[in-house]
Design a protein that fits this description.
Elements lengths: L1 H22 L25 H4 L4 H11 L3 H4 L14 H7 L1 H10 L16 H4 L8 H4 L11 E2 L7 E2 L6 H4 L16 E4 L11 H6 L19 H4 L3 H5 L18 H5 L13 H15 L2 E6 L2 E6 L2 E4 H16 L7 H17 L1
Antiparallel strand pairs: 1-2, 3-6, 4-5
Protein name: Cytochrome c domain-containing protein
Keywords: Heme, Iron, Metal-binding, Signal
InterPro entries: Cyt_c-like_dom, Multihaem_cyt_sf, Multiheme_Cytochr_ET
Length: 352
């Protein structure tokens, strides 16, 4: 028994010596030569670089400075129309920051009480967040609240889709009602001094729709064929580079001659030939008919409808006048369509 324990002890000692010899080297070998350094890698792009191209102090200062010259910043009728909720939702949705946000996000506006402290359209009205950050594949959406095509308020069968992130403009810059229709007796009743397209026919004039296309000596161009519709966009014309005094371009939404010259390289047209003169003539006739009245406010012509019942042709011509007057581009948005609407209205009234 003692011999067996002694043999086991010898085996344990021998195994330990073998393990020590396998795992240790008491005599270090000579140092090896240094290897060659690897090539430095290329620094990656900072994660916020693309963001910083817009979100920086110089850009924001230029935007804010130019925005102060815009009609949006001035507030418009926010004090009157912007505080009107469910009873006059079509006012609130464009005349206040809060109403516009509600309308874009939910498709409706809240009760009037929600807008007692309504404010003019601001940065947060038009801008919210990017639909995605994959700008290479999805396009740069400028974090606009609305980039999708717009279904017109007056006609659900008409969808307008302007390029270059211009659909955000269309939501408000569209008519609130369509033109007059014969009551069966050859008459039409104007029931409000706000009758007409009401401030917003820019998108429909540009598209070449919703004027009353009275038959006359001038043909109407096909829908969507205007040069400013096919060759440019709201944002390209109205949000170009600012001028030195910041009174035009960028977020003033006022076109500059520099913007125009990118296309009109042989000279920039300042007006549509004959349109202003024809509009003045048409206004005089319509005032004599009693359907429109005008006055000068602070050097600017102000025109409003008169409540009453009128021949349908007179109402149609008045609609066409207001369509161009409310557009306020002097026909530039769609010169051929504008000229045809006014000239043919004159011809029809003269022949009547």
């Amino acid at each position: 028994m003692k011999n067996s324990k002694f043999i086991n002890l010898l085996l344990i000692v021998a195994t330990s010596l073998l393990l020590v010899n396998c795992t240790t080297d008491p005599i270090p070998g000579p140092a090896g030569e240094d290897g060659i350094d690897g090539i430095d890698g290329v620094d990656g792009i900072t994660g916020t670089t693309e963001c910083a191209s817009c979100h920086n102090i110089s850009t924001s200062e230029a935007v804010h400075a130019s925005y102060l010259y815009s009609g949006h910043a001035a507030g418009g009728a926010v004090g009157y129309a912007g505080k009107r909720g469910s009873d006059k939702g079509s006012c609130t949705q464009c005349h206040s920051n809060e109403g516009y946000i509600d309308y874009v996000e939910t498709g409706t506006v809240q009760l009037s009480v929600a807008y007692e402290n309504a404010t003019p359209i601001s940065c947060t009205g038009c801008h919210n967040k990017h639909s995605s950050f994959d700008f290479e594949n999805d396009g740069f959406d400028a974090a606009l609240r609305l980039i999708d095509p717009v279904t017109l308020i007056t006609d659900a069968s008409v969808i307008i889709d302007f390029p270059d992130r211009s659909n955000n403009c269309v939501l408000c810059h569209q008519p609130r009602r369509t033109g007059p229709e014969d009551n069966g007796l050859g008459l039409y009743e104007v029931t409000s001094t706000h009758w007409g397209p009401h401030h917003g026919p820019q998108s429909t004039l540009l598209e070449g729709i919703q004027g009353i296309e009275i038959t006359g000596g001038l043909d109407y161009p096909d829908k969507g064929t205007a040069g400013h519709r096919t060759g440019t966009s709201c944002t390209k014309c109205h949000m170009g580079e600012t001028e030195p005094n910041a009174a035009k371009g960028l977020h003033t939404f006022k076109p500059t001659r520099t913007d125009c010259a990118t296309c009109h390289q042989n000279g920039i047209p300042d007006k549509v030939d004959g349109l202003a003169e024809n509009m003045a003539t048409l206004l005089a006739i319509l005032e004599a008919e009693g359907i429109l009245e005008s006055k000068i406010n602070d050097g600017h012509l102000s025109v409003h409808p008169v409540v009453g019942t009128f021949p349908i042709l007179t109402a149609e011509a008045a609609w066409n006048y207001l369509f161009l007057y409310e557009d306020a581009s002097n026909g530039i948005h769609n010169p051929k369509y504008a000229k045809a609407l006014i000239q043919n209205s004159l011809d029809a009234l003269s022949a009547d």
